[in-house]
Automatic annotation (TrEMBL):
Domain of life, per lineage: Bacteria
Keywords assigned: Molybdenum, Oxidoreductase
Region entry Disordered, spans: 613-632
Name of the protein described by the UniProt record: Aerobic carbon-monoxide dehydrogenase large subunit
Residue span(s) of domain Aldehyde oxidase/xanthine dehydrogenase a/b hammerhead: 20-138
Protein EC: 1.2.5.3
Record NCBIfam families: CODH_aero_grp5 (NF040766)
GO molecular-function terms, A-Z: carbon-monoxide oxygenase activity
């Protein structure tokens, strides 16, 4: 039999093409096609202003300009606000932007006018001729200003509060008040952004002869963009195809749909009868796409002498920017995933989601979990410090135990289902982590470093990650007459290795060679119904669907082959694309089985002669049964009852420079549990990438707004990112596999694991090195230097 590929470190099949420069991105689509036009967008220079007048009279005089639109030029559904994608009863004041601003702008970078010209240079020059008269209004920037509500982002949203949501399991306030020990903490996480290699881009072509729109978009949800384009342009869904070519990173910012340009570009393509393209530049991405992370938390916790949490009461404020197209997903995840692997005696969480005159918030890798993990792990460290206990001991007494799964936290998760963990073994993960990082040996190492005048610290952080969120994904598996297997799923891909892991699943289930499987993702022509790539759901959702579709295909192949080989299906096996009867020499190629599955009238080659109308099946039966269809293929959908919950623990050893306050990573260790591993190498790649982004978010990256709402670091000259020299070149990784009972493969998601605990683990390690409480992240050397100065001043008093 063919060697099983599940759990094997198979090299990525995508890499050869990518490393040879053969990737094909949106900016490559129709780039040389004659007649292709280019679009550019005029964006607001103000964070908050009323639009008094827009004068475009001089624009069409520019040679090469074909169209200039403002909101007044849009009609019907295009003139209405963009959709609020995920409504929620608590989102009482949801607001979304228009494709082009109507009457008012609410953040720097909001789209005001749209120009299409022969090339981007002409389009940009035309933008300079547009004259906009503004009535500038006071902006609301940051959570303190939003809470103070001295000014309003939207006149009809009292107090700038878009939503307030409370969940409670038990009586947390009473439990805190009655506990032997109590602490209060105030914790802050600043805004950041994912800044993928490739920004947003869209190309559209309208075929008037058949009334069909083809859109290429750098998106994480091809089917969502398809539905939006059809609805806003008044087209039937079947008239729109959306194709996602290679995508240079998504990380959450490309899950929002539609972006204004994803509607304006197709609209222009139809109006002008020519292909139209738009690619944002880097500054546009900073000021007009999406950010995340910004939250302020107040924690009250009560605990016993062992450090066991008896009551936990958390209130936090979430900055969702000027609009809420993605609803309350991020703060809901924070509020529920904050609990991590622990079981507090009682838990209450209340959050307010606030409007500010800044770029809107959509999920960024981790999607609210880094903030929650930071809050819970800082709380655990504070308890340990208060009691004088080892930090691992306090965590251990609060863990959910392996025999307690499934474990219901008594809350409602982002998918509207119960927050019920499916499987895990947190004590085993902690034991692995302590050994991996050398936790028990660290005091001796610290003493050795101190003798050399060096400061070192160690930190750890634990997390649980809800993954595989529904509602569904589907897959189609088709065996060609050549024996090659074509697999398609509507899920998009942004470099995660889907073409490899899905091929592994099909090769295993169908019994074919890996190199004979070809995977297509993100093409609505191949799979018109899908949800998208986000929330660490690809392996769980599409992986399960691919597995089920391959199983259907295999069942049909065995049935057809059994008839041809005059055997029973249960006596057959498939290996390397050949169906054979066990214990005999009788066999048939899978490609020939594909020929037999489609009874044609005519033979086209030697294999096809076996499938003419004169030779197929029992003469007393129709060639194609009533409950069957021609072709060796299978389609299936997977829809989970609830999310799976992966988990993990990170530890880091850092050194802080006594003079410059720079932070150097000496060791980084990860223990990760995503259920059964499909491809350990790809999981480890996901962890490495996540850790890199986590280091960035903890030590370097932030969105720096001034009081006027101007983003001060909207370029890679100013937005501080780590280089390879700042990211640990060696990460020690160990895996734990506790299979999920919720899907046929026993898998859980892995895509966001590396980034979730980063703020928490670095805060803990720096605090351990310096002896100074770390309550705000990210932290820079200058901020650490200032904390040292304040401590010295207080000690001198």
């Amino acid at each position: 039999m063919t060697t099983r590929l599940m759990g094997t470190k198979v090299p990525r099949v995508e890499d050869d093409r990518m490393l040879r420069g053969r990737g094909r991105y949106v900016d490559d689509v129709l780039s040389q096609a004659p007649g292709t036009l280019h679009a550019a967008v005029l964006r607001s220079p103000h964070a908050h202003a009323r639009i008094v007048d827009i004068d475009v009279s001089g624009v069409l005089d520019v040679e090469g300009v074909h169209v200039v639109w403002t909101h007044d030029d849009l009609t019907g559904a295009m003139a209405e606000p963009l959709p609020l994608l995920i409504p929620h009863p608590a989102l009482t004041h949801g607001r979304t932007q228009h494709a082009l601003a109507r009457d008012e702008v609410n953040h720097v970078g909001e789209a005001i006018a749209f120009v299409v010209a022969d090339d981007r240079y002409v389009a940009e020059d035309a933008l300079d001729r547009i004259r906009v008269e503004y009535d500038v209004l006071p902006p609301v920037v940051g959570i303190p200003a939003a809470r103070a509500a001295g000014h309003l982002v939207h006149d009809d949203v009292p107090g700038n509060v878009g939503a307030r949501l409370e969940q409670e399991n038990g009586d947390a306030r009473s439990a805190v008040a009655a506990a032997p020990h109590r602490l209060e903490l105030d914790l802050t996480v600043e805004r950041s952004a994912c800044t993928p290699l490739e920004g947003r881009g869209v190309v559209a072509r309208w075929d008037p002869d058949v009334g069909r729109m083809t859109v290429w978009s750098s998106t994480q949800t091809a089917t969502g963009v398809r539905a939006a384009v059809a609805a806003k342009l008044g087209l039937d869904l079947g008239q729109v195809d959306v194709i996602t070519p290679d995508v240079g990173g998504g990380f959450g910012v490309k899950i929002n749909h539609p972006w204004p340009e994803e509607l304006l570009v197709p609209l222009a393509a139809r109006a002008l009868g020519r292909p139209v393209r738009f690619t944002e530049d880097r500054r546009e991405h900073f000021i007009s796409s999406a950010h995340e992370r910004g939250q302020v938390h107040h924690v009250e916790v009560g605990f016993d002498d062992e450090g066991r949490v008896l009551g936990l009461d958390v209130q936090f404020w979430h900055d969702h920017g000027a609009y809420t197209p993605y609803g309350l997903i991020v703060p809901i995840i924070t509020s529920t995933q904050l609990l991590g692997p622990y079981k507090p005696g009682a838990y209450r969480v209340v959050f307010e989601s606030l409007y500010t005159n800044t770029v809107m918030v959509t999920p960024y890798r981790g999607a609210g979990r880094p903030q929650g993990c930071y809050v819970m792990e800082r709380t655990m460290d504070a308890i340990a410090a208060h009691l004088g206990k080892d930090r691992t001991e306090v965590r251990a007494v609060n863990f959910i135990q392996p025999d307690e799964f499934p474990f219901d936290q008594g809350l409602v998760f982002q998918d509207g289902r119960e927050l019920e963990y499916d499987s895990g073994d947190y004590p085993a993960s902690l034991a692995k982590l302590k050994e991996l990082v050398g936790w028990d040996e660290f005091p001796a190492f610290r003493a050795e470093m101190a003798a050399q005048g060096r400061r070192v610290g160690i930190g750890l952080a634990c997390y649980v990650e809800g993954t595989g969120v529904g509602p569904y994904e589907g897959a189609h598996v088709h065996v060609e007459t050549s024996g090659k297997v074509k697999v398609s799923t509507g899920l998009t891909t942004q470099g995660q290795g889907h073409a490899t892991v899905f091929a592994q699943l099909v090769a295993d289930e169908l019994g074919v060679r890996l190199e004979d499987v070809e995977v297509t993702t993100g093409d609505t022509r191949r799979m018109p119904y899908a949800v998208g790539t986000f929330a660490s759901r690809a392996a769980v959702m599409s992986g399960s669907a691919v597995h089920l579709a391959a199983r259907r295909t295999k069942e049909k192949a065995l049935r057809i082959a059994a008839e041809a080989l005059e055997a029973e299906p249960e006596d057959l096996e498939i290996a390397d694309g050949v169906v054979s009867v066990r214990g005999t020499g009788a066999s048939i190629d899978l490609g020939t089985v594909a020929v037999l599955s489609n009874p044609l009238r005519y033979a086209f080659d030697e294999a096809s002669k076996a499938a003419t109308q004169f030779s197929v099946g029992d003469p007393g039966k129709p060639p194609v049964a009533e409950d069957d269809e021609p072709g060796l293929e299978g389609k299936d959908f997977y829809s989970p009852e609830r999310s799976t919950f992966a988990s993990g623990m990170h530890a880091v050893v850092v050194e802080t420079d006594p003079d410059t306050a720079e932070v150097t990573i000496l060791k980084y260790a990860v223990v990760h549990d995503c259920g059964r591993l499909i491809n350990p190498m790809i999981v480890e790649g996901q962890i490495h990438g996540g850790v890199a982004q986590g280091v960035a978010g903890a030590l370097y990256e932030r969105m720096a707004y001034d009081e006027a709402g101007q983003l001060l670091n909207a370029s890679f000259m100013d937005f501080l990112m780590p280089y390879v020299t700042e990211v640990p070149d060696g990460i020690d990784i160990d895996h734990l596999e506790t299979p999920s009972p919720l899907n046929p493969l026993g898998i859980k998601g892995a895509g966001e694991a590396g980034v979730i605990p980063s703020a928490a683990v670095f805060a803990a390690a720096i605090e351990d090195a310096e002896g100074i409480p770390i309550t705000a992240m990210p932290i820079s050397p200058s901020e650490l230097f200032e904390l040292r100065r304040r401590r010295a001043t207080e000690e001198d008093r």
